[in-house]
Amino acid sequence: FRHGRVLLGSRLIALFRIDRAWTERHLLPLLSWECPVEAKAVWEGFLWSPRIYPPLLTAFKADFLECANYYAELGEHRQQFAAFLTYTALFSIDNYSTDDFRAAIGTLPQDGLEECAQALSQALQGTAEDQRADYWKNRVFPLWQEAWPKERDRATPRMAASLARLAIAAQDEFPSACTAIRDWLRPIEHPDFIAHLLKESDLCSHFPVEALTLLAAIVVDPPWVPRELGECLNQISSADASLMQDVEYRRLRGYVR
């Protein structure tokens, strides 16, 4: 039984394309969470390798959004759901509103929200470099502003790491991104990769104030100092010497020493 339902879920897009009426009549009802055992199996099949196909997403909208309330029941596919929900929100599907995504994302438990933050970062990082600033302005920032939860006590170090990478990926929109995520940043135990990305991006030279703010938020009493933190601070002070007197700059420089 379960294997058959999983297989149906994995073929859902193909079947919908071949015979939409038949699929809507016989298969889409299986996605309803009124029967959790059956729905879990079919959703697992679909989430094994989900793809954005707007007609199908519109057809099973209610049950898809309802998955947020059954996040734990999705088992090993729950992270895939959170990521796919995020990509769907970024894609702008007809008949899905900002309120729909705000409710679904807000319903997710903590680990689900962390997956959404990671998906946002990966979506921007996966965009062509010359298009990232526009993608931030037109896709990521509107979603963040309008659909992301407002309860900042839900922020975690893992989420902060994803959001820091998101801000760096925004490139020329780095200041805007830093302002947007600032209150969600938390100290990260191993900020080495973030420091590396900042150094390689040269954002410390172009936006020294924002780069210092980002580093100060995530580097707090680290078990060991990020190898490239000193180079980031050098870029910051070279771009704006006055920041050498900033209390956060001096604190970070103290770590390096």
What can you see in these coordinates?
The structure is a single chain. 66% of the residues lie in helices and 0% in strands. By secondary structure, the protein is mostly helical. Helix 1 packs across helix 4, helix 9 runs parallel beside helix 11 (157-169) and helix 11 packs antiparallel against helix 12 (174-181). The radius of gyration is 21 Å and the shape is elongated. 40% of the residues are buried.
**Backbone shape:** elongated
SS elements, strand count: 0
Structural class call reads: mainly alpha
Task: Give the helices and strands as they follow along the chain.
Answer: HHHHHHHHHHHHHHHHH
pLDDT averaged over residues? 94
Largest sheet: none
Distance linking N and C termini: 63 Å
Strand content: under 5%
Poorly predicted regions: none
Tally of separate helices = 17
Spatial extent as radius of gyration: 21 Å
